TrEMBL record:
PROSITE patterns: ZF_GRF
Domain of life: Eukaryota
Domain GRF-type: 15-56
Protein name: GRF-type domain-containing protein
InterPro entries reported for this sequence: Znf_GRF
Keyword Zinc-finger carried by entry: yes
Swiss-Prot/TrEMBL keywords: Metal-binding, Zinc, Zinc-finger
Length: 69
């Protein structure tokens, strides 16, 4: 087994197939730990859709820090 990603859960985001994508975590050196949506179909059937997960919590925390006196 050689995988560069791990499956965590189904997301609310849909791919080009119109079905729910899965959230994967990247393990590449440049994007380690970064999560992305990808088609949940098996290899050979999946579409090319993928998208980084923009963590809303992260931007909220950044905003809080920015507004801190
Ligand atoms: Zn798809």
């Amino acid at each position: 087994m050689s995988q560069d990603s791990s499956v965590s859960s189904l997301s609310m985001v849909k791919c080009q197939c119109g079905i729910a994508t899965r959230i994967f975590t990247a393990f590449t050196p440049t994007n380690a730990g970064r999560r992305f949506y990808k088609c949940s179909k098996p290899n050979g059937y999946k579409c090319d859709y993928w998208k980084w997960v923009d963590d809303p919590l992260h931007s909220r925390v950044a905003n809080l820090i920015h507004n801190f006196p």
